[in-house]
Every structure is written in structure tokens, then in C-alpha cells.
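Hi R.,

Here's the chain you asked about this morning:
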Amino acid sequence: MKPLRKIIFPAAGMGTRFLPATKASPKEMLTIVDKPLIQYGVEEALSAGMDQIIMVTGRGKRAIEDHFDISAELEANLKRAGKSALYKEVSRIARMAEVVYLRQKEALGLGHAVLCARHWVGDEAFGVSLADELIVHSKPAMQQLREVYEATGKSVVGLIQVPADQVSKYGIVAYEAEASGLLRLTDMVEKPAAEDAPSRMAIVGRYIFTPRLMEILADVKPGAGGEFQLTDAIALLAKEEPVYGVVLEGQRFDAGNPEGFLMANTLLGLQHEQYGESLRKLLKAHL
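And the predicted structure, written out as C-alpha cells:
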């Protein structure tokens, strides 16, 4: 089994839920306290040993490339000004990982975005991370999945349990609990009505796949909304080989919408070494 090093970040979406903020800026570059969303995802991947980053972007996403690129002028200016801490941070970001950028030229769904990286993945297992989903825990979400992948050699999907009135917003799984305690997925349904949902376990933006998933994606037909759904491909994969689900530990925020974004900023702001005390005082004064 080859080492698990590659991870795909689908980042071609237009971010319409954040308009007008995302009219000219990628949603992935919106900041949670002092770092853009996409950087949290990349750092999580790196902490799980996935250091070959594949960004699938679209028009208007150049800022993501610039963020992870070396800015010699900025670094030189920070160094001259004696701002050593900022210099080290900016330099670290530019050199933290090997990053490849691909274009998804048409908005044909998450499954299509992942398929765009097929050439770069080759015959290796790979991760997929949706940067909108911010999961805060001492053990990074991708590491939680990696441990199950390394124990089984099979695909692994991150799950959370959602309230019944929320199942229509997610891909929902059916599963069987094995004697080992692992959850083997038997089916997936994209955004079902509450009465049709096979469970309340929802897929939540973290995946590790065997190479077979790419082959299935190449043949999958358009599904809900006329898009190529990753969920449909996972369901087909689960009929051929085991696919496991991991109920992720940690605080999860849907930072792809303004409410979740504000909540993530509040929690991480309160935990921030430099800004936490000031934020606590502000909230206390206004609550």
C-alpha cells in the first residue's frame, strides 16, 4: 500500500451564500480570526501527513494561488522592518506544502471537481477535504480518518449526526455496525426528505478514497440537480468494496454560510492567545 500523501481541495464554487463579500474574493479566502478558511484545511491535511495538495479552482480564484505562493517583496519588506514573527509566518505559509492547481471549467458538481484531479492522483489512494467544513479538535479530522484507512486499507468517510429537520441538507448514509465497532456504509442518499432518510448520519466534507473511486466517477451519470454527485459514486463504490464511516470528534462549523462563519470566528476568537481576552470583554459588555 503506497503512503497516503495526496489530497484534493475542491475550491471552484462561487460562494453565493456570502454575496456580496465574495463578488470579487474567493470564499475560501474569507478569514476565521487571522487565517483564511483554506489555510485551516491545508494545515489539517499536513498534520495528517498529506503533503501533496491538489487545488481544483475556477475563475476568480487567483487569490488562493497567491496566498500559498512566495512573495519575495513582502518577505523582504517584513524582514527589513524587523517584523520577524510576521516574516516567519508568511514564509511558512508559502513553503508549507507542494501545491498543484487545476481548473474546473464548468460547475458540474463535487464529483466532477474531484474527477478533474484524476491524472494527478493516478493509482494512489487520496483524500478530499471541503474547506467550508471547519472541524476543531485536538486530533485533526483527516487524522481521524487516516487511522481507519491505515487499519483497513479501505475508503473512509467523515460523518456527523444531524437533527431530523436537517437531513434534507446533507448526503445521508445507511450503515451496518461491524463487530470491530467500525461503521460499514451500505448506501448513500443525497439530500433526502426526512421521511426517506436511511439514518441521521450525514457526510461532512472529509474523505479518503481508494483509487477505484476515480474509475467510478468517470462513468457516473448526472444526479440531483443535473450535477455529478460524489455521493452517487461513493454509493456505487460501497457495493464493490467496503467503505467505512467515522463519526468525527470535534466542534464542526459550516463556515460556508454566514451563520456558521460567525460562530467559528467567535469560538476561535475566544480561544486566540492574542485576541481572546478582548473579545470576552466585548461579549460580556453586550450580553
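The mean pLDDT is 90.

Let me know if you need anything else.
M.
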